[in-house]
Structure formats: structure tokens, C-alpha cells
Amino acid sequence: MSRSASLKVQLSALPDNPGVYQFYDTDGKILYVGKAKNLKKRVSSYFNKKQEYGKTRVLVKKIDSIKHIVVPTESDALLLENNLIKKLRPRYNVLLKDDKSYPWICIKNERFPRVFSTRKLIKDGSEYFGPYTSMKTVRTLLDLVKGLYPLRTCNYDLSEEKIRSGKYKVCLDYHLGNCLGPCEGLQSEKEYLNQIEDIRQIIKGNLKSSIQTFRQQMTDYAEQMEFEKAQRVKDKIEVLENYQAKSTVVNPKINNVDVFTIISDETHGYVNFLQLSHGAIIRSHTMEIRKKLEESDEELLQLAITEIRQRFSSRSKEIYLPFAVAVDDDLKVTLPKLGDKRRILDLSERNARFYRQDKLKQIKITDPDRHTKRIMAQMKTDLRLSEEPRHIECFDNSNIQGSNPVAACVVFKDGKPSKKDYRHFNIKTVEGPDDFASMEEVVHRRYKRLLSEEEPLPQLIVIDGGKGQLSSALKSLEVLGLRGKIAIVGIAKRLEEIYFPDDPVPLYLDKRSESLKIIQQLRNEAHRFGITHHRNKRSKGAINSELVNIEGIGEKTAQQLLKSFKSVKRIKEASLENLTASVGASKAKKIYKTFHK
Fold it and tell me: Where is the UvrC family homology region profile domain (predicted)?
């Protein structure tokens, strides 16, 4: 496959999610790292238009492959881009290569802790919250904190002995009301720590009470006609309401860790690896493993852990996994259930899932036969069939209070509609709205004809309906001697449950299952096809009845008129001469007289 064709396939498979993209050249060297609110639109923009800058044009010419990492939000994409650029230092990235980082809020590990912003993380037991993509958010939070709670800003060592000895004197902040004077023992440590706990909750995002206070303050300013102050408070409220308390991508509490998750189908396993260093994601890689002997997820994950850690020379002593797997004794295995660790695991699993979806989209374009085989194998397993359902037929009834009852049969071959094989049925032996009897009739007529004409039978029949319709269809198969020779299931509309013959307990397929999607597509197509035929029949019946009601005009004459004039409206507007030319003078006079009273 040529480079342009390969890139076109890769672009078509990109998701419409926020994330970070990476461009690589033919030697596998990284060229550029970028962030995107919508990966598909952003990456496609490099190739869909002529680039204004020469550097970008040169970059695009060198791109051979594209990788991406999906994250929950645009802010996470911003932070992850920063981490990866600093780690990988791509040639075409100019910004973010320096040692600057995003700001954090620090609650210092000391007696009477200070609260301040910083860009450096020092491992001295202090608490760090963030990082934040906007310094405006940090300043607003710190202003909020300082406005609500008087805290010290000095860097004195406020040990109990030094305070007791009277070493320090209160400063200007105390006289301005910004500090309660813990340096002279005027504020107890317990009272101060209670304030710090409140501040901790605000920084974590528990802002409800603070926002209510600001709203009251804004209202008070507005009532006093101090609109500029009210606007400043309103700006703070908006920032706080949009404030995101947590970032999944960076968490200083999580040290050097390897994260592994797996997604699998009938033929392949997809293992995602996230490498975290000092709480930041510095690498993401997904490995595709072909199943040879129907290996379990545990076996595939165990194999991938060893290979990936060797490939990237990982020396992390702890790994996060979705389930227990046998690994080296010197490795600590964590199975996260809640909190930040679980969020990191979920992020890894999401990237494995997106990688699989991208691969399947690319295979569908480049190798449709493999795509078909995979889906057929999946359906065979999901529906407990003895063979792959290469030929599927689905039946649906359509009537309104018993009028003009019809049925439809749609045919899928290799998972795709075969419209030339679709069939309509007008119900002949059933009177009134009886879906069960109608289903029995059309199934019998369909397969009696296939048997008599020695046409190939389907491997699977899908009945649109629950146990009742399925039982009716089974009666017809039994009469024809086909029960047990063709697999048959019913799909009920309410919860999309799948019913099998002689099994009262339905099967519930995963809502994202491709097997369920094909069955739903069959059902929807049968419904559409049946409804279209039913409407046409009702319409024709209404037109015919208007003409047939004329004395001396029968159904045959009505059809002849419609064939000549195409519609009742044109028949009503036709001249006597034109009507005579179509059906003769006698009938023409009656029709003309009826419509021209």
C-alpha cells in the first residue's frame, strides 16, 4: 500500500474524541506531538488543505504513521501533550520543550501550613493539587481561599518552642486582618488546621458553599450600585463553576508505575500500556496479539507484560492490572477498584478499546474478507450456532387493525443486505390482526418455495418478535421437516432480548456487540421494507376505492385509468375526449359526469 493510501486509511479510523496525536517518519522516529479537542478533525486538517508555513509543509511530507492517545477532556489533552513533549522532545515541536511546567497549588508540610502556587514539586510530604492549565484558575482559587480564611504568608519556622519564647512579632498582615497571628500564639494550631481542611475541600472541587457565598456577595454589590465589584465577583463564580478538580493524566501521588489493560475478541487481543513517571503519563503503546490456540485474556496479558516491559526497558517496581496475573516476584501488583488509580486503569482500557476500533475500521477498508470472517465468527459464538451465519433471513409482519396485512423477508449475506433477495408477502389465509398466524403462514410459504425450487437455505432465521412469534415460525419449520436444520431466534423489541426455541430464558447480548448490531440492522431493515409495502398497498387501495365507487367502473378499469393518467387528480382533470381514448365512450361519460357535477 502506498504512503498516501496508508495515511488515508489511518485518518479514516481516527476517533472524534479529545486526545494527543503523534506523527512518526518512515524510520519510526517521532516528528511531532499535538493536542486536539477532536482528533479526527485536527489531524485531517494537516492533509486536507495547503499549509501556510513551510515548516508544516515539510512536516506533512515526512509523516508516515499516526498514533494517538484518547483522554477524557481537552484539559487532559493539554497536560498530556506537555508531558510527552518534555519526554520525547520531537523535532518539529518548538514550544513546551523547556523545563517549565503547569502550576500547582501546594499545602506545605509544616506547622501552620502555608497555601501557595508553585511550578515545582518537592517531595517533602507537602500536598499538591493540579496541575492547572490556566493560571487564572489558580489565582481565583487562592483569592477565594484568602478571602474566606486568614492564613499566614511568612516563611517562619513556627515551632512550639519558638512561639513560646516570643521570637516573632506579628506583621502588617495581622493589622490588616489577613492573618490571626499564630506567630505570637494568638491562633491555636487546631483552629488553623480546621481552616486548612476547609481549604482542602475547596481545592478538591467541593465549591457549593463558596459559590453561594460569592453569589450573595455579588447581589450585595449590585444592590449598592457597585457594579464593577459585582462583575469581578461574577467572573470568579464563572471560573469556579468551570473549575475541574482532577486531572486523570497527572497525579503526584502516583509514582513510577506501569499500567496494563486488555480488550479482546474472537481472534485478537489488544493490550494497552501506560508508563507513569512521577505521576505523569510519559508513554502509551498498544500491542495487538493474534490468538493461536484460543488463549484467555490472562494468558495474553501475561505474555504482553513481559514483552512490553523488555521492549521499553521499564524498571518500574509496581504495575496496575484489571485482574491478577502471574508476574515476577519482585513486581508489586495492584488491582485498583476506586479513585485515581482506577481512573488511570480506565483510561488505559479506553485506549485499548479505541485502538481495536481503529484497527477494525482500517481492516474493513483494506481487507473486507477478514472483517467479514471476524464478524461471522463472533456471531457463531454469541448465538451458539453450529456454523457461521453467512446467509441470514429476517421476517416482520405489518398491519393496522388487521387492514392490508403484509409481511416482509429481508436477506443478509456475509453480514450485508442482499436487496435482490428481499421478498414481500400479502397475507392470504389469515383474517384480522393475528401476528402469530401471519408469521406461521409467511415462514411456511417462504421455505416451501425454497425447497421446491432447490434454492439454498439460510443458516439463521431471525423473527421480529418474542416467544409467541418464534413458536409460530417453529410450527412451519416442523411441518416442512426443517426444525433443527436451520437455526432460528426471535428478537423482542423492549429490551432487545434474544429468544431461542424451547428456552424460556432469553439471551442478553452486550449493547456494543457487533452480533447484536447486525441482528438489529436486520430487524430494522425488515420493518422498513414491510412498512413501505404496507403503505403502498393502503395507498393503492384508497385510490382504487375512489374510482371503483363510480357505478359501472370495476377494478380492472380503475387500473387501466391509473396506468394511463398516473394519478386520480389527473383523471379528475382529464377531458372527455382523453377519457374516451383510454376506456371507451360509455365509461368515459360516467367518470366525467361524476367528477364534473
Answer: 263-477
